[in-house]
Write a structure and sequence with these properties.
The chain contains 10 helices and 5 strands, in the order H-H-H-H-H-H-H-E-E-H-E-H-E-E-H. It is of the alpha+beta class and about 220 residues long.
């Protein structure tokens, strides 16, 4: 049955307007965005299928365009809407980091990195460059690698941080494998970068490993 044939009190859009977005389940919110379903399935049915296939809202939004194009019922219009929502979320989180200290808004930092890196099919190493109040100056993609590894050069990291006049940095890289545990090489790299930046009085606040639904913090693990 099409959603337009449902009782008004059960339709996602009407429920959102009457009760607010917080009252809707993930599939209902996604259905409002999708607007229509596909042959034999309502927008809610399609939303549930997508969430089941990708595992979560975050993983769906972070999925690459090529991956979304393989999903029946997701034409160019729906894919562009999903990508637009993701970019708006990134920009809102980035604005929050520019306005306030990264230490006072750790959730924004974690979510920004997850939304920026989780959908990549190769490793990427990025640095959030922060001022003396730990507000965001810039987010720089410093190195790009293969499916399982990337090469990071401390000299280039230091040059970039100095060029941005950064007082502190937060590093992040993704694990396309989906495993958010740090390797021995990850821990060694973090110690090397911390030592190199300390020589020019730049503090390393954290290093995140990002997967589809997780952003593991070195600081929280006591690894800094």
């Amino acid at each position: 049955m099409a959603i337009r044939d449902w009782p008004a009190t059960e339709r996602p859009r009407e429920r959102l307007l009457a009760l607010g977005p917080q009252a809707l389940a993930d599939a209902e919110l996604l259905a409002v965005l999708l607007r229509t379903g596909k042959r034999g399935a309502s927008a809610v049915d399609l939303a549930r299928t997508l969430l089941l296939q990708f595992g979560s809202v975050g993983a769906l939004l972070a999925a690459a365009g090529a991956e979304l194009s393989q999903v029946a019922g997701l034409g160019p219009a729906k894919r562009s809407e999903l990508q637009a929502v993701l970019e708006l979320a990134r920009r809102a989180l980035k604005e929050e980091m520019v306005r306030s200290s990264a230490l006072s808004s750790p959730h924004s930092v974690r979510e920004y990195l997850r939304l920026s890196l989780a959908g990549r099919d190769h490793e990427v190493f990025v640095a959030l460059l922060l001022d003396a109040q730990h507000r965001l100056i810039a987010c720089e993609e410093l190195f790009r690698g293969t499916l399982s590894q990337t090469s990071v050069y401390p000299r280039e990291v230091v040059k970039t941080a100095l060029a941005c006049n950064a007082a502190a940095v937060i590093f992040a890289h993704n694990h396309p494998s989906g495993v958010a545990e740090p390797s021995g090489a990850d821990e060694l790299l973090t110690r090397t970068l911390k030592s190199a930046l300390a020589l020019v009085d730049i503090q390393v606040l954290d290093h995140f490993i990002v997967t589809g639904s997780t952003a593991m913090s070195f600081a929280e693990r006591g690894l800094l």
